[in-house]
Amino acid sequence: MIRAIALLGLVAACRGPWLPVATEADATRSNAAVADLNRGRQLLIHSCSGCHLTPSPRDHRAADWPSEVAEMRERSKLDADEVALITQYLTAFAEQR
Ligand code: HEC
Q1: Which of 5, 20, 55, 76 falls between 20 and 30 A from 14, CA-CA?
Q2: Span from the CA of 4 to the centroid of ligand 1 (angstroms)
Q3: 18-93 maps to which CATH number?
Q4: pLDDT tens readout for residues 42-62
Q5: Contacts of 86 (CB under 8 A, 6+ apart)
């Protein structure tokens, strides 16, 4: 049983959540800088994976991400700039509804 759970975790880790690296096209589309988007991606990977799988931009709609990240802010001990970058990344790749 324990082995089965460990194996499941391994499979999940290999597939991993969908976390695209930002390109120029993404930056233009979302009116942001590529470097900022990818800094947000790195912060997300480092600060938001300790307690659950790294959230994927597609987990929520763009309009819902700011409040979702705000809710997690204290848990992850991020400052306002880091929160803004993470939110920008998640919003840029979320479904724009
Ligand atoms: C210290 C642990 C911890 C850290 C760090 C953390 N989270 Fe969470 N997160 C949780 C727990 C526990 C839940 C589920 C319970 C809840 O929603 O209160 C959760 C739930 C969520 C949910 C809700 C999922 C849903 O289905 O609505 C989202 C989105 C989320 N986290 C995003 C993030 C993001 C983004 C970060 C980084 C900024 C982050 N989390 C960092 C512990 C953490």
Answers
A1: 76
A2: 25
A3: 1.10.760
A4: 999 999 999 999 999 999 999
A5: 40, 43, 44, 47, 48, 69, 78
